[in-house]
Amino acid sequence: MSDDSTEQDYHDYWYGEDVATFGDRLAAARGFAGLNQEEFARRLGVKLSTARGWEDDTNEPRANKLQMMAGLLNVSVGWLLTGEGDGGLNAPDVAGDGMPDMAGILIEIRDVRVQMKSNLDRLARLEKKLREQLKETVQND
Q1: Are residues 39 and 49 in the same domain?
Q2: How far apart are CA 91 and CA 110, in angstroms?
Q3: Cα(21)–Cα(122) distance, rounded to whole angstroms?
Q4: How far from 37 is each of 10, 27, 56, CA to CA, in Å?
Q5: Is the pTM of the predicted complex or chain greater than 0.85?
Q6: Which tens digit of pLDDT belongs to each residue from 17-76?
Q7: Are 92 and 38 in contact (CB under 8 A)?
Q8: What is the extent of the structural domain holding 98?
């Protein structure tokens, strides 16, 4: 891809806030840096279970560890948190000859995640609207 905006759009498709979690981006950056989870945890001075929890999105790092991991992985803190900014990672090449069926499934999964997030946002807005209407109804009675 030679067009910078197209490359950024493709990058956001894989690592942007709408489709990738903090843990997804962390695992991708760790893999891109050539570190396994054990080495990553050791170099940060944390337990392996802690590093796994970050990648599984079951716990979050403290600010000092977040800064350390960004430096270790050569990405920005902003990119780890949101997918925006300097990540230094290329989006996966899913158009390769190797496994076209799996690539298609992976793309479809990403599309479903985007739709689910959109639907969750919509559901939250509807819930808020209903709560406001219920509150007004109770106040008027």
Answers
A1: yes
A2: 13
A3: 19
A4: 27, 9, 12
A5: no
A6: 555 788 888 988 888 888 999 999 999 999 999 999 999 989 999 999 999 999 998 888
A7: no
A8: 94-141
